[in-house]
């Protein structure tokens, strides 16, 4: 931004004055808070909450704070230096943003429609949504669906509020899965909708309508998941099941949602289940009992259209999980980069649906492995990997190793997108290190039946560790390179050596 010389001088002198009168870090101290008062935002009279302002951190400042601060200072309960420190941070931010030089630079309200919610922005939101959808299962090519016949759309997340907003402008509800499916098929197919149950309730009174909708249809799409609206302040009565200040002791579906899915499956109609959530859901029985299983993490307002794009094959799914899905909450913590150990993981046990118990070792009736691992995600296409190649195998810390692999889209009719992932294993280290670490990936679009060579660079400097002296070093020795479609689906490997 251009600034005149005079304006720059004035700003600089004023900022120097600010430095002199309001130091960056006040020496004022105050008694540390107790855990019960640390985040007591509405009651600033408990001034122990304000000690964080002397540590270069800020906390929420509501209207009641400003209405009370003067009285607290006058009464000697709040050191004015704490207030000065907080004010200085606000002023510094405004100086750095140039707000004193050009204070009213925002677009006028009359121009908002030209800048916000443009077609370009809507298209981008839809693209981001569909690229983030993860196909977990697709038995017997149940997906993509045909845009004909009859389709049941069922579930509490199929046509409810979308998890959007928290913006300075009011957003409309967005495109729900039902909206998106209807728009995709137009008048080519009959849509039978039933909610079935609420997101949070055990009430099954809506099951009969949902079962009837499924029986009248060629396929059923059941959308279930979690709900993260604020049930206290914003949406009274719409009880949140996940999100900020909402803790749970189970990752299973809440209320009647799992029984609803079972009721639809029991009709014999092919059932596609969509998990709409902001976290992993632990319902492993879904893997082998549904025609297809899809994970849609909370989308934008275009989520319904994006889901329809994937369900009907207008977009070939390419999303990969950025988090591991456990079999149950008892498996937590679960992550792909667990530390190496001399003890092997024991075989898993299992509780079958008929009640039969199969005992394992170390994990008696559970599975320590992820239900779906980090980096996992299917496609309507399939991909074959060639041999992994390295451009050099003897390197120094300053080098970059280029990993290359040929990837073929074996689908003769459909373009596909694969996310090629590179994990590195430090074969011998002076301290305990993760069994593998993701160090690179590339998302590549591969035309039907064609092969692409994918190259991913690895900086040797990025392969270091913190040794026993807490110094970051790249230790000499062998490093294994694992290339695959997920953290567990490794298709090839190679080794290089650091001198």
Automatic annotation (TrEMBL):
Swiss-Prot/TrEMBL GO biological process terms: cellulose catabolic process
GO molecular function: beta-glucosidase activity
One Pfam family here: Glyco_hydro_3_C
EC id: 3.2.1.21
Fibronectin type III-like domain: residues covered: 418-487
Keyword Heme listed: no
Catalyzed reactions: Hydrolysis of terminal, non-reducing beta-D-glucosyl residues with release of beta-D-glucose
Segments forming a coiled coil: none
InterPro entries hit by this protein: Cellulose_deg_GH3 (IPR050288), Fn3-like (IPR026891), GH (IPR017853), Glyco_hydro_3_C (IPR002772), Glyco_hydro_3_C_sf (IPR036881), Glyco_hydro_3_N_sf (IPR036962), Ig-like_fold (IPR013783)
Top-level EC class as recorded in UniProt: hydrolase
Family the entry assigns: Belongs to the glycosyl hydrolase 3 family.
Protein name: beta-glucosidase
UniProt source species: Aspergillus oryzae
Lineage: Eukaryota, Fungi, Dikarya, Ascomycota, Pezizomycotina
């Amino acid at each position: 931004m251009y600034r005149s010389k005079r304006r720059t001088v004035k700003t600089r002198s004023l900022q120097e004055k600010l430095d002199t009168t309001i130091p960056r870090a006040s020496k004022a101290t105050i008694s540390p808070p107790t855990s019960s008062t640390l985040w007591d935002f509405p009651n600033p009279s408990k001034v122990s909450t304000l000690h964080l302002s002397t540590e270069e951190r800020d906390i929420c400042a509501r209207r009641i704070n400003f209405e009370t601060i003067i009285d607290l200072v006058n009464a000697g309960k709040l050191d004015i230096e704490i207030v000065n420190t907080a004010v200085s941070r606000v002023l510094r931010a405004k100086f750095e943003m140039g707000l004193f030089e050009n204070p009213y630079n925002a677009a006028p309200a009359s121009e908002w429609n030209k800048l916000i919610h443009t077609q370009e922005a809507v298209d981008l939101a839809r693209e981001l949504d569909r690229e983030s959808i993860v196909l977990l299962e697709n038995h017997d090519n149940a997906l993509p669906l045909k845009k004909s016949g009859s389709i049941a759309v069922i579930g509490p997340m199929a046509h409810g509020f979308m998890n959007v907003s928290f913006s300075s402008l009011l957003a409309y509800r967005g495109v729900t899965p039902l909206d998106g499916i209807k728009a995709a098929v137009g008048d080519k197919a009959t849509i039978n909708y039933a909610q079935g149950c609420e997101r949070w309730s055990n009430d099954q009174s809506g099951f009969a309508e949902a079962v009837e909708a499924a029986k009248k249809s060629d396929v059923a799409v059941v959308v279930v998941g979690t709900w993260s609206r604020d049930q206290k302040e914003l949406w009274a009565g719409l009880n949140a099941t996940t999100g900020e200040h909402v803790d749970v002791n189970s990752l299973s579906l809440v209320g009647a949602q799992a029984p609803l899915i079972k009721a639809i499956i029991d009709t014999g109609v092919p059932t596609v289940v969509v998990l709409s959530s902001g976290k992993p859901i632990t319902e492993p029985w879904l893997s082998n009992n549904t025609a297809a299983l899809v994970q849609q993490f909370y989308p934008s307002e275009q989520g319904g259209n994006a889901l329809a794009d994937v369900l009907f094959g207008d977009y070939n799914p390419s999303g990969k999980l950025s988090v591991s899905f456990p079999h149950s909450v008892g498996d937590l913590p679960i992550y792909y980069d667990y530390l190496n150990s001399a003890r092997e993981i024991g075989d898993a046990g299992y509780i079958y649906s008929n009640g039969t118990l199969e005992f394992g070792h170390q994990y008696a009736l559970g599975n320590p492995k992820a239900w779906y691992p980090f980096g996992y995600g299917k496609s309507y296409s399939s991909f074959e990997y060639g041999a992994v190649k390295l451009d050099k195998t003897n390197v120094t810390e300053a080098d970059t190793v280029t990993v290359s692999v040929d990837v073929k889209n074996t689908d003769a009719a459909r373009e596909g997108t694969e996310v090629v992932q590179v994990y590195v294993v430090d074969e011998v280290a002076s301290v305990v290190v993760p069994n593998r670490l993701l160090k690179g990936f590339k998302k590549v679009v591969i035309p039907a039946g064609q092969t692409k060579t994918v190259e991913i660079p690895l900086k040797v400097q990025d392969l270091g560790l913190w040794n026993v002296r807490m110094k970051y070093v790249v230790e000499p020795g062998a490093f294994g390179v694992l290339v695959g479609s997920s953290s567990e689906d490794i298709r090839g490997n190679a080794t290089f050596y650091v001198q």
